[in-house]
């Protein structure tokens, strides 16, 4: 394998693999460095807005041929079990990361992108060239995309501001088998957290919840936390109690940060959760990752075609486009999550939404984009 590439992508999730396919389709030499093997389950809500469908089709991925569930209904409940429902303005689909990431990786390889399983330990930039040090080798490239997820040791190396702050959130994800509508995505709140529920391609129900670590630490383990806290939401309790687990044990991650991040770090273009993470309560992080991949890829191609004359212009344009596309979504996500973290206020909000049903689709639109244009 060569040690020099046009573009090196750190992280082989949705953003990294989408960029790899896009750039390799346009004859760039691309290396993806991913620490895990495919296929692999990830802690993720596994609901994606339909806004990304035109781009996924452009990349050669038909999610419905992979079995994705078409979703057009939304349900929300409060910790005191007040329930409200709405139609999703644009709709979405449910598909597991186990399935989607694996198929994106296969497509990237088919397009002649290289994918290696390794861990990046450091990235330096000098003389207009990146040097990427991994556990196994050293590589160089003209461009680096950071798409390695919510947090990594590389964030410490880069001295990113958010990594210095302790986050109060953890996430738990599992798959279960039971009775749940194919066309519904639900968000159910409980004390100190909220849980997303939707079907994926193999008819499993994906359960993924965010919880406050201080609330969680009062209990011995995940099972006790669910029995004592999560199941106070009677809708969630019914889903769990009337189902069978698919995973032997739930997956969990801690130190999930919703702090503001910079989309450019050390001249690297950051994509997906590496650039900014929307609260899962707004249910749209996966589509944001895919959209940011398209954004970065188009600008990189302009850079290599000399339509963008220098790196400084490339970085400024990416930052401008990223903020225009996502800054408002992230702000809305913070506001919504903050409001629903206050139980009494959440109950009032649900009553208002029931009186004025048009409010909920409006909030959903504020955290989602339009159908992606494909160039």
Q: For the terminal residues, how far apart are their CA atoms?
A: 31 Å
Q: What's the SSE pattern? A: EHEEHEEHEEEEHEEEEHHHEEEEHHHH
Uncertain ranges: none
Determine the number of helices (DSSP H or I, runs of at least 4 residues). Answer: 11
Instruction: Quickly give the structural class.
Output: alpha/beta
CATH architecture: 3-Layer(bba) Sandwich
Q: Biggest β-sheet, characterized? A: 9 strands, mixed
CATH class: Alpha Beta
CATH topology: FAD/NAD(P)-binding domain
| DSSP E strands, number | 17
Output the radius of gyration.
Answer: 20 Å
Q: Please state roughly what percent of the residues sit in beta strands, choosing from under 5%, 5-15%, 15-25%, 25-35%, 35-45% or over 45%.
A: 25-35%
Q: Please tell me what the overall shape is.
A: globular
**How would you name the CATH homologous superfamily?**
FAD/NAD(P)-binding domain
Percent of residues in helices: 25-40%
